[in-house]
TrEMBL record:
SUPFAM superfamilies in the record: RNI-like
Residue stretches making up the F-box domain: 73-121
UniProt-recorded name of the protein: F-box domain-containing protein
Species for this entry: Trametes cubensis
Superkingdom to which the source organism belongs: Eukaryota
Lineage: Eukaryota, Fungi, Dikarya, Basidiomycota, Agaricomycotina
Coiled coil: 41-68
Length: 492
């Protein structure tokens, strides 16, 4: 047998599919007949071809008739446009599909400018900037006077490409309501700034991300050059507060986060003086800091015997994720938060900040929800933590996630279940919701102990909401009993 390989051996794996495919041999002697086909067979072949063509035509006619009587064809163009608008807002690429479905849909898409108001340069474009420019010009033309959603990823493009894109966008930036800028460095950010003089009057949402490090000596730049009276949402990723060094009277949400691709322990330093200026000149409702700390080098009030306390009348939500306790305490010392309803904190074992909240509860009269992550419930810190909770009887919801040792332990639940006869008073007497996440020791029986002890007791609320997420040792028996006692039980 010849051992040499041939092309027929390629893509002929024995274990792929139900069996080997038999290839028809064109020289098979059983099928080779040099004589011309008889006329009756030729007629049959012609009839078969005609019938096949007729079948294709009938199938097309059937599809056409079905399309004519389809319910979607009776939907008014205004409603279809609204459906298209919602779809494109969730998936921008949907517009290309809409244009290909039918002539009617394409006419609707062309007649409604808002569908063309999305301009996105992402990594999928690669180096095909000329193609992107052509598409962007079409969208700018067809969007007419509609407000624009603009997303620019300038990581893979050089400065010349960034300049070309921004020069084309410049006359239209006055109608941009949402701007996302992902810059590889400050020179690219400056390029955006140079062409963004028209940006501001319609801007409502601003996201700015830059790949900087603590060794980056470039001077930060503020892309926004004029007041933004409608700006209500800002997210800065790895960017300093100088990036929004403008008036933001309508600001409602401020997010300061580390770059999502950063995997080191590095935290971002934010000037507390600049933060105070931003917060006190806006009506903020939500503040989120992730992987950051506050720098007080340029603020004098922090070192006074009686520091000035600023009121943030509308702030109702605070999130400090991987932020040191000292920075959290400084924030809480500086601001009075009469509308604060919930605070979420991941600060490690140091809970000095919650002691601060407990000592001055009058600055947080609306506080109802406390969410803690990575706290050590097994150490000596549990005692001051429980004492602090005694000073916050108004709390109605408590969340405990990912304790630093992996477990919460039975002691905390014993205190929650302890009646005034043994503990002096109920801990968190208004508590209605208890949520646990990534707690390795939760079996459900400790929760059953708390629920049962508080159920129907005087001067204490019933537990009416339980959520257990990634708690894999929960007993099915305990869960069944909890379900009968608690109004809402969720196991995720």
């Amino acid at each position: 047998m010849d051992s040499s390989l041939s092309y027929d051996d390629l893509a002929s794996w024995d274990d792929l599919g139900p069996g080997a495919v038999e290839v028809e041999d064109p020289n098979d002697i059983k099928k080779v007949d040099p004589r011309p086909l008889p006329s009756d067979i030729v007629e049959l072949d012609n009839s078969i071809a005609e019938l096949e063509a007729q079948i294709i035509a009938l199938k097309l006619q059937r599809e056409h008739l079905l399309n004519q009587r389809a319910l979607i064809a009776r939907v008014p163009a205004e409603i279809l446009c609204r459906i298209f608008e919602l779809g494109v807002d969730g998936a921008i690429d949907l517009l290309s599909t809409i244009n290909l479905v039918s002539r009617q849909w394409r006419e609707i898409a062309l007649s409604h400018s808002i569908l063309w108001s999305y301009i996105v340069l992402d990594s999928s474009w690669g180096w095909r900037i000329p193609s992107f420019m052509r598409k962007m010009r079409v969208h700018l033309q067809r969007s007419k006077e509609s407000k624009l959603y603009i997303e620019l990823d300038l990581h893979i493009n050089d400065l010349e490409d960034a300049q070309t894109i921004m020069a084309e966008l410049k006359p239209h930036l006055s109608r941009c309501y949402s701007l996302y800028v992902f810059a590889a460095d400050w020179p690219r950010a400056r390029t955006v700034r140079e062409y963004a003089s028209e940006l501001g009057p319609a801007l409502e949402s601003f996201f700015f991300s830059i790949n900087t490090t603590e060794y980056d000596m470039d001077e930060p730049v503020c892309i926004l050059s004029q007041p933004c009276p409608l700006l209500n949402y800002v997210m800065l990723e790895q960017a300093p507060l100088q990036s929004i060094n403008i008036a933001t009277p309508a600001l409602r949400q401020l997010n300061l986060v580390r770059h999502h691709q950063c995997h080191t322990s590095q935290r971002i330093a934010y000037s507390f003086k600049e933060l105070v200026a931003i917060l006190t000149n806006s009506r903020l409702k939500w503040f989120n800091m992730r992987w950051g700390f506050l720098n007080v080098d340029n603020i004098e009030d922090a070192f006074r015997a009686s520091p000035v306390v600023y009121e943030l009348p509308d702030l109702n939500g605070l999130v400090f994720n991987v932020v040191d306790s000292a920075s959290i305490s400084l924030f809480l010392d500086t601001f009075s938060l009469p509308a604060l309803e919930g605070i979420s904190v991941h600060s490690g074992d140091d809970i000095h900040w919650i002691t601060r909240v407990a000592l001055y509860p009058e600055q947080f009269p609306s506080l109802r929800l406390l969410d803690l992550r990575n706290f050590n419930f097994s150490g000596a810190g549990l005692a001051p933590f429980v004492r602090a909770l005694y000073q916050l009887p108004q709390l109605t919801g408590l969340g405990l996630a990912q304790p630093s040792t992996g477990i919460i332990g039975a002691r905390f639940f014993d205190v929650l279940a302890a009646a005034p006869e043994s503990a002096g008073e109920w801990l968190l007497p208004r508590l209605e919701a208890l949520c646990l996440q990534s707690c390795a020791d939760i079996s459900g029986y400790e929760l059953l102990q708390v629920v049962t002890a508080r159920r129907g007791a005087a001067d204490v609320a019933n537990i009416s909401f339980l959520k257990l997420s990634e708690c894999f040792l929960v007993s099915s028996e305990a869960l069944d009993r909890l379900t009968t006692l608690v109004t809402t039980v969720r196991l995720l």
